[in-house]
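Field guide to reading this record: the first block holds the primary sequence, the second block holds the structure written as discrete tokens, and the final block holds curator observations. Each block starts with its own label. This record concerns Amino acid/amide ABC transporter ATP-binding protein 1 (HAAT family), catalogued under organism Primorskyibacter sedentarius.

BLOCK 1 — SEQUENCE
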Amino acid sequence: MIRVENLHKHFGGFHAVDGASLEIATGSITGLVGPNGAGKTTLFNVIAGVLEPTSGQVRMDGDDITGLPPHVLFHKGLLRTFQIAHEFSSMTCRENLMMVPGGQSGETLWNAWFQRGRIAQEEETLLKKADEVLDFLTISHLKNERAGNLSGGQKKLLELGRTMMVDAKIVFLDEVGAGVNRTLLNTIGDAILRLNQERGYTFCMIEHDMDFIGRLCDPVIVMAEGKVLAQGTIDEIKANEAVIEAYLGT
Ligand code: ADP
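BLOCK 2 — STRUCTURE
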């Protein structure tokens, strides 16, 4: 689904991504690991249109998507999860989900005055969808809770839920397991697996927790110093001497 070719991202003279090439297969849950500073987040941000690459190419289903802005990629089904922004923390979980799709009739003044029926219908559909998403993620009980009151793990589930409000094809998850307790980590892992198996989502995830990676990801790609160092199953990666050396060197 995604092909990255010889990608470079330089910050001044520093090469954060330094000629990375990789593929993310349709239907896979691909893990991206590597020592701190390896360039994983920068690579994610370039693929997801948050940063412009210095050079190189990103393709999605054969189309050149290099440098396209996030909202264009969003409409192509490529999503990157972000922390719930501060300004949305006073809104409920349900409201946070309902505002994801955008482009609703009620957003223009004209429609707000003259198309009340249509707006009510759209809101009804969105509300139903938001409740389905909350149910899928087993957090229905939190639908009227303000996002700012959620625990770290619950916020991660809500972030994942936001991708379910639109027709995502591929979702980039940045350390979804960081600082999350074991129980919620299992819930998040289950949701990722079900989205992959039942709804055909492709995932690419940066993660440090090797158990979590081992449970979910195949293949696992290892980055070091801005390049792809190795790729394989979790067991192959763990036994790879260059990988062990890269981790020990930090
Ligand atoms: P990782 O996610 O693997 O820990 P990052 O992509 O966050 O790695 O960072 C790779 C390197 O690029 C780090 O040394 C970091 O300090 C540097 N870097 C990242 N973003 C910027 C930036 N905006 N300006 C300058 N250097 C940056």
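BLOCK 3 — OBSERVATIONS
The chain has two domains: 2-77+167-248, 94-164.
The chain has a mean pLDDT of 90.
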